Amino acid sequence: MGNPILTMKAVGKRFPGVVALRGVSLEIARGEGHVLLGENGAGKSTLINLLGGVYPADEGEIIFDGERYRPRTPTDAYRAGIRVVHQELSMLSQMTVAENLLFESLPQRHGLVNYRETNRRAAALLDEVGLDVAPTMLVSRLGVAQMQLVEIAKALCYESKLLILDEPTATLTSKEVDRLFEILKRLKARKVTILYISHRLHEVYEVGDRVTVLRDGQLVATRPLAGLTIPEIVHMMVGRSLEGERAFREDVAVSGEALRVEGLRRNAKTPQVSLRVGKGEIVGVAGLVGSGRTETARAIFGADPKIAGEIFVQGERVDIATTRDAVRHGLCLMTEDRKGQGLLLGMSCAENITITDLRKISSHGILERDVERGAATKLVEELRIKTPSIDQTVRNFSGGNQQKVVIAKWLFRGSKVLLCDEPTRGIDVGAKAEIYDLLWTLAAEGRGVLFISSELPELIAISHRIIVFAKGRVVGEVVRAEFDQHRILSMAYEEYGLERSY
Amino acid sequence: MRNTDLSEATEVARGRRAAAIWNDILRFAMREAGIAVALVLIVLFFSLTAPYFATPENFLKIFVQIAINTVLASGMTVVILTGGIDLSVGSVLALCTVVGALIMTDRDLPVALSVPLALFGCMGVGALCGAINGFVCEQWKVPSFIVTLGMLNVASGFARVTSNNSTITGLPQPFVDFGNMIVWGVFPSIFLIAVGVILIGWFILRFTVFGRLIYAIGTNEEAVRLSGHAPRFYKIAAFTISGLTAGIAAMVYLLRLNVGSPIAGVGYELNAIAAVIIGGTSFSGGKGSIIGTLVGACILQVLTTGLQLFGAGDNVKPIVIGTVIVLAVVLDAYRDRFLRAIESR
Q1: By the CB < 8 Å criterion, does A340 face chain B?
Q2: Could you tell me the pTM of the whole model?
Q3: What single string gives the DSSP state of each residue in A78-92?
Q4: Secondary-structure class of domain A4-238 per CATH
């Protein structure tokens, strides 16, 4: 390669007890779209953090733009021309969009912030990423996807040489993803180098010229993407082949009714929602972010208020005003925000599992540790949660293992209906397959599963039926025999009056 | 596998087990015994350097002096574990001393009746104040700092009104005698009451479903709610407990000082918070223990007494105490990082 912008030579990084990165040598060409892949814990984040100046490397040498690169702080990285859009967003939530965008160099006049100029420049940036919000809006009022776009816009406003994107599409809808790819292509045309990380393998072809795969902290290979198939990539990532698509379990018979919702309204402005999930059935829920999927699930579960609607669990009408009612009647909700809403991060694996039904592990209000440990151990084994002990705090678990803990806690409760909101978000390929299998097993045991996901291929792979949300209501329903990506997508977009071709 | 490989593997395994045991010891020392070790060191230091520190009389004095703060701090621990704060305990204590003293000085009541009545009165008034704190916090989503700051003033006002702004003396003699009692020549009665409160608190927090939920709420309230619980109920209960312990502390106050006063307990809430924090309970909730709080209260009192024996007057004391509070939290952060490093080993 003639003039690489980034050269890493035998770079290594260790944390107490863990070798996070070992002997990684990598060259990235100027203006290249380079994709970085690997399962959770493969060392991707470590590599990004080294480049972003979060912590220094222990071994090896990094040469960036012809110079030795040893950033000690994120500011050093910005100065050198490296910009990282992290997966976990860090925004100043009580400030405006414009202030967030230009925070590092707010336009000034006579030593005061020039808000007119700030807002003008912010508006231009927002326009570039296609985000339709006022620059003066408070960031706290944005949705997650919108925040992600603001973060990307922020990266654009500084002329960076290397732009690193860590799972930027995790929260974006297809339309926004398309927009992002357009932007990235424009940037590439301007000779900006892009390092791109994603779990969604099919989209890496959009941005990438070459791909580097990490496994267990070591570099497996760097290859041109052209001609490389997804199964080949997966093989490189996991070191073994997974069956391409998870086989749909035809043998599971749907019989009877697990959940029926009729005329649910969240507030006076939202339309009515009715839906039905059979026993043994996985019902996929498609729709854009903000189309009412999550909101409906939360309302069913009693997590958010509702003003009307009847809910039936296994044919019996139940009153659900609070989450307590919902859990008592056999419902469970796996939220999209695992860390923020699903887990007690600072508490142990066992304590997380048993929190849903403390009566089962106590008598007269006094905890029975042995019962608790027994139950937790059993579930940890059943679900193959990888942990040295059930006393480990779940904070240190990988995304896939954390999700399994969330599933375990609802299994412990013996829930009859599972409301899963993006249960595979941010989880690597291998763990995803395990989660699918797990959900299948649970369905086969007679539970009903409502599976919300933004990844249509995933829904198509595992659902009996897919219902489509748009503007707060169910706009369509497709049975398995008629699954068709284009048709489902067009339903999801129709209501929004977008004539897009997929 | 060849023989040499095998013995090598055994060697490695052995080494690993030794390391694991060492890790366990380290972890225990750091997590469970960290502040206890600090307390022992401080006691040793004063014993060796300060005259008259290591005398039975002095320890007896310390036991007497930590009683009130320990009782207050045990309830405070529960509130702080949920992520809240209770600034009102000092003036709730004052109100309760007034209530208790008024009941006991009522000449129409026989002592056998008036003392238990006073106890229930104190506990009832305290619990009521706490319940109001909790209810207001939860019902209108007001930060507990503000609600209990309000209660601090309201309770203090009620204490003045009910006492006519005067101290109440003349408690029944058997009551006063009980307060001066020393069990087995070592333990003052009020210290044993404090220990009793601590033990009950420890049991509740560590072994009951209620305690588990208190920790869980402090760790992630929303996750607890979405797991099918009503955090609101437990948070109100936590404040009620804090009020209740303020009521018990008021009885201890009456036993020790034999006077009910509307100006009792000024600043006590800050001492209680200090004990909780030094004891290693996280201010953001979810982490800590009531045993830690007991040790924290001991550290505070030992420092105070030790400094007095050194002849360092009341002016130096706040400097040292203030430094210790901040230092404890700083060390705690380091300890946390260190623990995580061990755990990820």
Answers
A1: yes
A2: 0.78
A3: HHHTEEEE-SS----
A4: alpha beta
